[in-house]
Amino acid sequence: MRAILLCCLLAAVALAADAYFSAQEGYLARPPDYDGVGYLFYAQAPYHLILGLHLQTALAHLVNNVAPLWSAVLTVHYLVLGDGVWQAFAA
């Protein structure tokens, strides 16, 4: 359990550093690149499955994904901010 918490902490630090440097470069003010759009579409399916209370199917979709952790982060993003054009830039 300790190792999992340490990994989560390291991931949060890496995500915070990435967000900081992306904000410095203005990356968050541009629309997503080609692969970013793909990840956003991958995250929409579990988002809609969770809203429909199909939790096992949503989990299976996230686990069998190209980038499961990143898709999970984007799915949580959709759950918190909603699904739309401007929500990605709300943070």
Percentage beta strand:
under 5%
Helix content range = over 70%
Q: How would a crystallographer describe the biggest sheet? A: none
Shape: globular
Average pLDDT, rounded to a whole number, is 84
Distance from first to last alpha carbon? 30 Å
Number of distinct beta strands: 0
Domain count: the total is 2
Query: Residue ranges: pLDDT <50 for 5 or more in a row?
Result: none
Number of helical stretches of at least 4 residues: 4
Structural category is mainly alpha
* Pattern of helices and strands: HHHH
Cα Rg: 14 Å
Could you explain the architecture of this structure?
This protein has 91 residues and is an all-alpha fold. The chain folds into two domains: 30 residues; 60 residues, no CATH class. 71% of the residues lie in helices and 0% in strands. It has four helices and no strands. Helix 2 runs antiparallel to helix 3. The termini are far apart. The mean pLDDT is 84.
Itemize the secondary structure elements and their pairings.
Blueprint: H1 2-25, H2 34-51, H3 55-63, H4 68-81
What descriptors fit this protein?
single chain, 91 residues, mainly alpha, 4 helices
Write a brief caption for the model.
The chain is mainly alpha-helical. Helix content is 71%, strand content 0%. Helix 2 (34-51) crosses helix 4.
